[in-house]
Amino acid sequence: MRIQQSLKTALRETKRERTRLRILEVAEALFRERGYAETPIREIAARVELSPQTLYSYYPSKDRILTGIFAERQQGMAVAAEKMRIRHLESDDAPGTHVDRFLHMIRWGLRTLADGRAFIQLVFLHSRAIYGGAPSAGGRTSRAWSRGPAGGR
How far is CA 11 from the centre of its chain? Predict the structure, then answer.
């Protein structure tokens, strides 16, 4: 009986994780296609075949969905970077010198960032819409940017 219950729990968790990832996938595609502000939660829910209420049980807001997308990308990059580090820096049979391997990893990281440029632009544009400003030159931020969300959002 316990095995059956454990199996049901594992299946439920697997389904929940697949749904969570599907929400992020659909949301990112819609954000790119329409823009963050123009993408309503109900459209994301409809495309994932969930009710808006069910979607809110996964992510309580669009901001949390955007944060989830970012977190998934960051986690994926961290896992890939660790694999690269092990393969190129820790392996004794990897080709090239230690410096060559390190430079290979840097090039990989820069390519990965370039590939994610559209997502970075999406986050930046969303941040500008919320904060009403943008970072200024020289590393200082505009007053609106550093205040946080307009109207306490």
Answer: 25
49: alpha, beta or left? (left if phi > 0; alpha if psi -120 to 50): left
* Contacts of 96 by beta carbon, 8 Å cutoff, 6+ apart: 104
What span, in angstroms and rounded, lies between the C-alpha atoms of 48 and 50?
A: 6
DSSP line for 5-35: HHHHHHHHHHHHHHHHHHHHHHHHHHHHHH-
Structure token pair of residue 133: 């400003």
Q: What is the pLDDT of residues 78-117, one digit of tens each?
A: 888 888 777 777 777 777 887 888 888 888 878 777 777 7
**Span 35-62, mean pLDDT?**
95
Q: Is the pLDDT of residue 67 over 70?
A: yes
